[in-house]
Amino acid sequence: MEQKENLFYIQHPLIQHKISMLRDKRTGTNEFRKLVEEIAALMGYEAFRDLPVELAEVETPIEKCLTPMIAGKKLAVVPILRAGLGMVSGILTLVPSAKVGHIGLFRDHETHEPQEYYCKLPVPIEERTIAVLDPMLATGGSAVAAVDFIKARGGRHIKFLCIIAAPEGIERLHSAHPDVQIYCGCLDRCLNKDAYICPGLGDAGDRIFGTR
Ligand code: PRP
Ligand code: URA
Question: Which of 32, 36, 68, 93 is buried most deeply by CB count within 10 Å?
Answer without folding.
Answer: 36
